[in-house]
């Protein structure tokens, strides 16, 4: 680790919650720790150090972290006493401007945790250490943070404003990963379309790397997905699976979510992508039961999903997150109705039953 906290050769276990950004951070952490002579274990009860990489997007994810720490405390009573380090979005949130809890409150709630550090405090900034041997499929963050402030989302508070990694450094890193055995890369960012200086240019440069077979990316939102990016996506190595969160098919709800597009604009964008890349497969994110969402508004989401024909969807039942703008809105769709709406979309998209 970057700071001098781990002495001698430790056996470490990393538990990762949340999105692929966190998975990528955990890969980076593991590469750094292994490079320093510590050994990774897949058995938490054999670890002398447990790193918990947290997610604060949903309350349930935070509760799982609290539950895991409590479980470790109970194990500790039976003479198993790993050093517990907390990292990831909960630590970032606790230090942010619109935090829901302070670091002191987090420390009081989790007295078993010895260190609260962000990932950069643990492993420093980029470039990433390259693991040897490298897995065939690697996650490569190309940017951090988000500038968009969708009203339900804590990410801009937890991860800060968008910062892109330099294009040349990314190309060099992917070349090194390919030399170590990587065949596929997934480029990660909260909104890869806004990668600076130019996401299309990055895709084109990565296409030229010999022996790299596949380039995927996450997440591409419906704004800033320019014609140039779509043209670059036609490159033979770019994955034909595109994740394009729609969140709702109703314009009023989209506006309340601060998503800067209409349902019609989303449909037109999908049509344009399909004209350019007919074999593309689309997945999406949808939130059901956003504050004030009526049955008629939900029906517009269902209609949009039928028209677009997503091959997969991550459907979330809205839950208010303190610190976000939507937290001030009445959470007025009942849990039973949220569940019903979730089931309708789950059956329609993920089980193809309707
Ligand atoms: S684009 Fe919206 S949903 Fe995605 S991370 Fe940014 S604020 Fe959150």
Automatic annotation (TrEMBL):
This is tRNA-2-methylthio-N(6)-dimethylallyladenosine synthase. Keywords: 4Fe-4S, Iron, Iron-sulfur, Metal-binding, S-adenosyl-L-methionine, Transferase. Its EC number is 2.8.4.3. Residues 132-354 form the Radical SAM core domain. Residues 10-119 form the MTTase N-terminal domain. It holds the Pfam family UPF0004. It comes from Candidatus Shapirobacteria bacterium CG10_big_fil_rev_8_21_14_0_10_48_15. One of its GO terms (molecular function) is metal ion binding. The keyword S-adenosyl-L-methionine applies. Its cofactor is [4Fe-4S] cluster. Catalyzes the methylthiolation of N6-(dimethylallyl)adenosine (i(6)A), leading to the formation of 2-methylthio-N6-(dimethylallyl)adenosine (ms(2)i(6)A) at position 37 in tRNAs that read codons beginning with uridine. One of its GO terms (cellular component) is cytosol. Coiled coil: none annotated. InterPro entries: Elp3/MiaA/NifB-like_rSAM, Methylthiotransferase, Methylthiotransferase_CS, Methylthiotransferase_N, Methylthiotransferase_N_sf, rSAM, rSAM_horseshoe, rSAM_sf.
């Amino acid at each position: 680790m970057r700071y001098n906290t781990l002495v001698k050769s430790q056996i470490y276990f990393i538990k990762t919650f949340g999105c692929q950004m966190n998975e990528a951070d955990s890969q980076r952490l593991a590469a750094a720790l292994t490079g320093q002579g510590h050994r990774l274990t897949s058995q938490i009860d054999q670890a002398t150090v447990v790193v918990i990489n947290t997610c604060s997007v949903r309350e349930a994810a935070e509760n799982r972290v609290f539950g895991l720490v409590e479980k470790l405390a109970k194990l500790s009573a039976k003479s198993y006493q790993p050093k517990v380090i907390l990292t990831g979005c909960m630590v970032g949130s606790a230090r942010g401007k619109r935090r829901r809890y302070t670091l002191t409150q987090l420390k009081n709630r989790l007295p078993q945790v010895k260190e609260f550090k962000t990932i950069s405090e643990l492993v420093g900034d980029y470039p990433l250490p390259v693991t040897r041997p490298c897995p065939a499929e690697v996650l490569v963050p190309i940017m951090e943070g988000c500038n968009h402030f969708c009203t339900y989302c804590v990410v801009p508070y937890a991860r800060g404003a968008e910062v892109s990694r330099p294009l040349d450094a990314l190309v060099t890193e992917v070349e090194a990963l390919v030399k170590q055995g990587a065949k596929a890369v997934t480029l990660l960012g909260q909104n890869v379309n806004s990668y600076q200086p130019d996401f299309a240019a990055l895709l084109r440069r990565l296409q030229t790397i010999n022996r790299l077979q596949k380039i995927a990316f996450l997440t591409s939102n419906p704004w800033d997905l320019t014609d140039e990016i779509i043209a670059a996506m036609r490159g033979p190595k770019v994955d034909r699976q595109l994740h394009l969160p729609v969140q709702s098919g109703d314009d009023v709800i989209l506006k309340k979510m601060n998503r800067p597009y209409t349902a019609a604009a989303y449909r037109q964008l999908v049509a344009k992508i399909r004209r350019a890349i007919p074999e593309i497969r689309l997945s999406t994110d949808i939130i059901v039961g956003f504050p004030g969402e009526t049955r008629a508004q939900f029906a517009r989401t269902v209609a949009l999903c039928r028209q677009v024909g997503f091959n997969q969807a991550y459907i979330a039942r809205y839950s208010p997150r303190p610190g976000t703008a939507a937290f001030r809105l009445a959470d007025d769709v009942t849990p039973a109705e949220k569940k019903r709406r979730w089931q309708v979309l789950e059956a329609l998209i993920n089980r193809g039953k309707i």
